[in-house]
Every structure is written in structure tokens, then in C-alpha cells.
Amino acid sequence: MNRIVCKFGGSSLADAAQFRKVRAIVEADARRRIIVPSAPGKRNAGDTKITDLLYLCQHGASVRTDLSGPFGQIVERFVEIEKSLGLKPSIAEQLEALHAELARGVTPDYAASRGEHFCARLLAQYLDAEFVEPADCIVIGANGIVDPRSYRLLGERLADSRRRYVVPGFYGRDGEGQLRTFSRGGSDVSGAIAARAAGAELYENWTDVSGLLMADPRIVEHPRPMAEVTYAEIRELSYMGASVLHDEAMAPVREAGIPVCIRNTNEPDHPGTRIVAKLSPEVEKATQIAGIAGKTNFSMITIEKNLMNREIGFVFRLLGVLEHHGISFEHCPSSIDTVSVVMEAEELESKSELVIEEIRRTLEPDDIDFVPRIALIAIVGEGMAHTVGIAAKVFSALAAASVNVRLINQGSSELNIIVGVAPEDYPTAVRALYKAFVE
Ligand code: ASP
Predict the structure, then answer these.
(1) Fold observed for domain 4-281
(2) Nearest to 227 by CA among 287, 288, 292
(3) Which numbered atom of ligand 1 lies nearest the CA of 189?
(4) Ligand 1 atom showing the smallest separation from residue 183 Cα
(5) Would you state the pLDDT for residue 439?
(6) 185 — alpha (psi -120 to 50), left (phi > 0) or beta?
(7) What SS3 class is residue 350?
(8) What pLDDT sits at residue 17?
(9) Among 243, 241, 294, 239, which Cα is nearest to 407's?
(10) Where in the chain is the domain with CATH 3.30.2130.10?
(11) What residue ranges of the chain are covered by domains with CATH 3.40.1160.10?
């Protein structure tokens, strides 16, 4: 039987009522055999995630303060879930043992991992499923990224397609056998690893939004959800600020060609957004762009020098100055006699004067212009490469909204057009582009 891996985020498991929704979702489709939970998240805006409480306890124990406040909250929440679901009482005893471990001293990774561990223990009991210990079969490399050995190890552990498994998200072990977590939000990564390891037909990522939106809802009112989007488009959109999945979650499924579906635990009938290698012909026909994303926190340095194009190694030396100051750049658009470098403002921050001085000294430009803040907006879509008039539409929409374009960059993949505008024009520009392409 083909299997589906379902990852449920923290808000989907925040209390007993959410656990009930999760069970209904899992039982609604017999292919949903592998379940990857996060730790219980926030129940409301003022609440604290279990993971954050655990980090707090670990830190508290390391400076010998009293843990009873945050630890008490952890116990209360897990016991409440266990009791409300009518499970066999055992969590209080297990948490007591954890308290003793914390007091003796554990690593931050170990402490944080217990949120997913105990959540998965409860969920496995509730779903009558088998608990799988990730420390036995997910190996995390020294760089914090999954070691490909994990696919075989976890795959063997999940081999019986008639069973249902619960694999806690967020953690595994390192090459030396020490427990280790991925970076924050890493249960998305565990879900992707499980999907690849099990050769799943689909990776469902259940969260609290009904799919991904074509623009930032804080700027565009009720933006349309995307029905389907490609892995490549998602990469561009999330790089430009759209919050999607954990950065490292796409690679395992993308390499194996497993589609991802983002769905809402609180609205399970909504189809959500599918992330695929190639758009279906209907979607491709119906949409010009996948979405619009942007960030306002960039800086730009533009250098002008007559006959720059004849100077061999000019750009190389320019980038060398940035390297010398440990600055990584994001874009480098150029023309015959000018070249700009765009970087995150934070990277440049206190070093701007030094950097500009060094550029002046080593490159002797005719002119140098420094823009401390510029916003970049990416209009992303696979369809762009073979549609006439996309750029015209971008610039006429911005002109009609009286937005001055400071920079234009089209990626060589023809997957996006990036425009730079003044930060104060950013919301107007995003709305104008959304209106032109979507409404
Ligand atoms: N619980 C972890 C966090 O809060 C991992 C996750 O939820 O994906 O970052």
C-alpha cells in the first residue's frame, strides 16, 4: 500500500481537543501510516510552547535556579492531555524522571527533544500506533543537517506498511551517538526524512493555515491561497521572506520527487497547497505567477566607473572587499559601467564606512552610491519564462502606483523578477503587483 507521512505542528497538538482532531484526520485515510508530531505549541497568543519551557528549565538547572515554575507548566500540560484523552496514567512518572535528569544536568538539545518525545509517546498510545525512537535511526551530521544514512536506517524501522508508526520530530543523534536536535522548527525536516525513508507517496504537513498565500496577508487583504506551487518556486518565495517550511525540509522530498501538501488541522476539508516538481497543465494555464514575496532589510552599494567593462577582475576585487569584511552578498546586478551589490542591511551595519573606504581605495571608482535601506520584492513563477509581457506588467503596475524602481534583477532561471524600491514604497508596490497579476 502507498503510504502518507503526516507531520503535525505544535498548534495541531497544543491540547487534548487538538489531539482529537489529529486522530480524526489520521483515521480518515488508511494510507496515513507514519505520523510525525512536534511538541505541544501555543494554545493561544499568550501561551508558551513546551519547547521554550524546556529550554528554560535546562538553562535554569545549569545556573542552579528553581525549576518548579516552568517545569510545573510542562507537567500540567502533558498530564491534562493524558487525562482528557483517557490514556493510561504514566506521564507524570516519566516527567519526574526527566526532572531529576535536568537537575543533574543535560544538554539543551536533550532537554528540548523531550517535548517531541513525550508528545509522541502520548500520541502513539492514543492512535494505538508503534513509537519509533529517532535517536536510533536519524543521524544528524556535524553541520546540523541530516546524514543520508538515516534514510536506510529509518526506512528499515518503518518497513511494515500494515502498521501505524509515530516518530517524534525535531531530533536524532550525531555521529558519536549523542542526542541532537535540528534547528528550531525542525520537525518539518524529520517529516521530510520519514517521507523519503518510507518511500511515501505524499508528505502532508498539517499546520494552522489552509495552505500558502500568494502574498503577505499583513500587506494584501485576503490574498488568494496557492493551489499548487513547484519546489523551485517555494525556494524563491521562502528565500524572499515567505514563511513556508523549514529551510532544510524541502531537499529530502524534492530529491525523491515526493509531493508535499500543506494543510490545516482546524479545517481538514480544505485541500491546502500542493508542492510539486511540475505544475499540472490546468494550474499552469490558470496562473501567471506563483506569488509575491519581499523583505525591506537590504542595503545597496552602487559603483560607477567609466570603461569598467575593460578592467579584468573588477567585480572579483569588489566582492573581495566584501569577503575581507565577512559580508555575504545577495545580488549583484550590473551594466557596462556600473555594478551594484545588495546585501542584508544587518551584514553591513557598523562596517559600511570601512567597506566604502576600501572600495574607493582598491577600485578607484568615478562614483559610489550607498543606499542604507532598500526593499526587494520578488515576483515568482515558473510560467514567466515563456509568457510575453510579464516584465511590462510589473513595471507598468509600479509606474501607475507612482513607485520608483531602484533596481531590477531577473534570475537566470527566469523563475523570478526582483525589483528594489524604497522601504516606504514597499506596501504600495506589493499591493500594485498583486492587483496586476492576481486580481
Ligand atoms: N518544537 C520544536 C520548535 O519549537 C520543533 C518543531 O516544532 O518543529 O522549534
Answers:
(1) Carbamate kinase (3.40.1160)
(2) 287
(3) 8
(4) 9
(5) 86
(6) left
(7) helix
(8) 98
(9) 294
(10) 291-437
(11) 4-281
What is the whole-number distance in angstroms between the Cα of residue 9 and the centre of ligand 1? 8
Running along the chain, 439 residues long, what does each successive block of 10 average in pLDDT? 94 98 98 98 96 97 92 98 97 97 95 98 98 98 94 98 97 97 96 98 96 94 93 88 85 96 97 94 86 95 91 92 93 89 91 94 94 95 83 94 92 85 97 94
In this structure, the dihedral spanned by the alpha carbons of residues 81, 86, 89 and 95, taken in order and rounded to 10 degrees, is -10
By alpha-carbon position, which residue is closest to atom 6 of ligand 1? 185
119: part of which helix (H) or strand (E)?
Answer: helix 108-127
Cα 186 to averaged position of ligand 1 atoms, centre (Å): 6
Q: How far is the CA of 61 from the centre of ligand 1 (A)?
A: 21
Residue 11: the pLDDT is 97
Q: Looking at ligand 1, which atom is closest to the CA of residue 116?
A: 1
Ligand 1: list residues with CB < 6 Å. 10, 38-39, 49, 51, 115, 169-170, 184-188
Helix (H) or strand (E) holding 263: strand 260-264
The atom of ligand 1 lying closest to the CA of 9 is 7
Q: Is 332 exposed, middle or buried (0-12, 13-18, 19+ CB in 10 A)?
A: middle
Which helix (DSSP H) or strand (DSSP E) does residue 169 occupy? none
Q: Find where cell 562596517 sits.
A: 351
d(Cα 212, Cα 263) in Å, to the nearest integer? 9
Name the residue at shortest CA distance from atom 8 of ligand 1. Answer: 185
How distant, in Å, are the alpha carbons of 124, 212, 272 from that of 227? Answer: 32, 8, 7
Looking at the chain, how many residues does it have? 439
Spelled out in words, what is the top-level CATH class assigned to the domain 291-437? Answer: alpha beta
Nearest CA to ligand 1 atom 2: 185
Say how many Å lie between the CA of residue 112 and the centre of ligand 1.
9
User: Measured in angstroms, how far is the CA atom of residue 108 from the centroid of ligand 1?
Assistant: 13
Full strand arrangement of the beta sheet holding 4-8: 130-131, 165-166, 32-37, 4-8, 202-207, 260-264, 273-276, 228-230
Regarding pTM above 0.70, the answer is yes
Residue with CA closest to ligand 1 atom 5: 185
pLDDT of residue 154: 98
DSSP 39: -
